[in-house]
Structures are given as C-alpha cells and as structure tokens.
Amino acid sequence: MSDSLDNRSKLKKYIDQLTDEDQQWFEVLAQYLIQKGWTADFPVSQFLAILQANQLHFSDENKPRRFLDDLEKNGIIEIKRGKARRPNRVTLKFYMYRGPSLEGCVPLDSPLYIKRSTDSICESYLEQSMKPGKTAAFLKIKAAKHTGKTSLLIRLQNHAKNKGWSVGYVDLESSQFSQNNQQLFDQVDSFLDRFREIVYQAYQIEGSSRSNLLDRLTSGVRCTSYLEQQVFTTSKKPQLLLIDGIDQIYGKEVQDEFLWLLRTWYEEKMKNLPGKTVKWPSIVIAYSTEPYSQSNFRESPLQNVGTSIDLDDFIADHLLGLSEIYGLEWCEGVENANKLMNLLAGHPYLVNLALYDMAIHNINIDDFQTQATLPPYKPFNNHLRRYLDILNNNEDLKQCFIKIIKGETIQFNDLIPENLAKLGLIKFQSGKPKVRCELYNIYFKNYLGL
C-alpha cells in the first residue's frame, strides 16, 4: 500500500514540475484519453492534430513524439507500439485534475463529466426520430438544481453537430431575454417575438428575422408561422432544437402561452401522420423542478407531451472514476466509494464538491466524513443553507419534511411530498418517501431541532 502511495506522490511531483507549456500539452492529451475511456489508438499525427486544434503551437516537429516518450518513461502513460503499420495504443496511467471547483455547467472539454445512462437514452431517442418517416422526438429533461441538466444538453448539441444535424440552442436564462434590464417573461408578445428571433439566429440563418407580413397574426401564430416558413422548412438536414432554462418562465405571464405553444407544436407539427411530412425539429427542453415545486402548479400544458427524462444519480463506479481524475490516493477504492455513496447517495454536485475538497486539502475519506457531518458542514454548507432557507419560508414543506425525517406517516392527498421530491430533498422508494441522503438527515435533524 505504501509503495502505491509513494508512486502516486512521485507522479504528482513529476506533473507539478512540468513547464507551463508541457502542462497544457498534458492536459489536452489527458482530456482526450479520458473521454475515450483512458485508452485509445493514438498515432503521433493524432496528437499533433489535437495540439493544433487547441491552439498549442510548436516549432520542432519532433517535440510531440519526445513529449509522449518522456511521459511513458515517467509512468504517466503506457504506449503499446503497433506492428505492421497499426497505430500505437496509448493508455493514461495517471491524471490529477488541476482546475477550479466545479460549479454550474460542466464544460464540454472537461474530464469531470460523467456519462450516465440518460445520455445514451437521449441520444437513442433522437437518432431514432431522425430516420425518414419518424415522428420528431420531444424530450423533457427535468431534475432538481445541480444535477447536470445543462451539461447533458450541451453534449446533446455536440452529438447532433457530430452527426451533421442542423441544431439550434436557446437558453431562456440568458441575457437575450431581457430588454432595458427587464426580463421579457411578463410580456407575452415581446417574449415570443424575441424567442422567434433567437431561434432564427441559433440556426445561423443570414439576414433579418423581421417579417411585416405576419404582424397581424397573434404572437403565438406569428412565431410558429415564421419559424416554419423561414427556418424549419429551409434545411434538408435532420433538425434539433434545444431549449434550456424552461423553469425561468414558471409563475410568469408567458408561462401558459409558451408551454401551450410547445404542446401545439408537438400535437400538430411533430407527429408522423398519413399524407404529412414532418418538417419540425425534434425538441429537447431542460428545466429545474425546484421553482415548479414552490409555485403549487397542479397541472402543466406539457403533461402527457413527449418523453420525460429523469437524470439518474452517480453509482459507485462513477465515484471511483472521478477519484482517479481528482488524483486521490484511494487504495481502498471500492470501500471509500461506498462510504461516500452512503453519505451522498450519488448526488452529482455533492460528489464533485466532496472529491475536490479531499484532493485540495489532501484528507482521507474518514476525516472528510467527520468534517462534512459536523458544523459548519464544509464543503456543503452553502448548498444546505439554501435548502434550509426554502423550508423556513414554507411551513407546509417544512412540517412534511420533519415527519419524513422522523419516519412518521404522511398524507398523500396534496402536492407537498411530491414537491419535496422535486426540490431534491426526498426520494420515493417502493412508494415510501425517504430523505435524499444521509448528509441531509444529519444536517436537518440538527437545524430543525430534531
């Protein structure tokens, strides 16, 4: 065990002593190999292409080859040299994430992104819908905050581009939906006109989206008619429209109008019917369930529309893979992963906070658990405090949650238990509500005086 720890310490020291340029080279190499499952056929020409794609230039054409040889010599990579003109196979043996703590969307090139089963499910639905004569897909990615919705959406965008599809991406949370420092979510006509313009721009169509011929139509009909005539029927490629931040319109004036517009598209434009050719794109929307749970909406125009995608949590294998990326020295890997699973139940955001904290402060899993489950509950205190504020501002949610923590029977004739699940505080197991993870149990027992 000590030999293994000593070896990892040597590898860390080697990486730390690389020049700034060499560290950049190693980072792009590692990110490529991690995305390929830590090993890939890798001729030197491939490395040259990756360096050039990342604007990393070199004057000596032999330097990339020497760089790879030096990494192999020091145990960072393993190279199995191909025979009979077959490419070399390179395996990454050691990596240590050196970036900032992960907050918000995981960048497309980040090694910290973990592909889950929902990634493959979404890709499969979309690929099936792009076949001739098929109904366009309508996917609804929904989950509580900090669970990876936007990160998945941008990877579906990248998947679509790699397939050669025509793809547009619209984020309702962006500054594009504000005017004179005021959001447009309480102005139906202005919002739908802006949405139409942004979709038009997202598909990179040249020219203005302005059309005086449609001014006499209602804003919803105007939006639909224009997109159909000027965007969706102009391309012969398979098409995909991604809409992020749907939760931004919850409780706003535009909510029902916009959601009914999407429902109308699904029912009238996206289905494959006899004598009708589908010209509408497949649509994927993503939204947080948290503001919805706090607004007491009992029904949505999007009920029974399309396919709901619930993001799954990390499993122990995901934690093991991430621990390697963070450079943690886990000799008892499976045992440590299980300990963290017991505490956090695979919550993606909390898992990354935990692993980053252990890596930065060089502490083991047992010391981390002690730290995380006692005041001030670092590094989770901000996350936990946000939930506590929500509960303290909603007495019904708070009292229901207290009963669940205590294991008492609750009534299911209202939306409160369901809203706690949408917040991400509980999960239903065999029809029974359970606190989402042990960390929440410990924290809220303390702060709710239980």
UniProtKB/TrEMBL annotation:
Q: Which domain of life is it from?
A: Bacteria
Show the InterPro entries listed in the entry: P-loop_NTPase
Under the heading SUPFAM superfamilies, the entry gives:
P-loop containing nucleoside triphosphate hydrolases (SSF52540)
Gene3D superfamilies hit by this protein = P-loop containing nucleotide triphosphate hydrolases
What is the protein name for this chain?
Answer: Uncharacterized protein
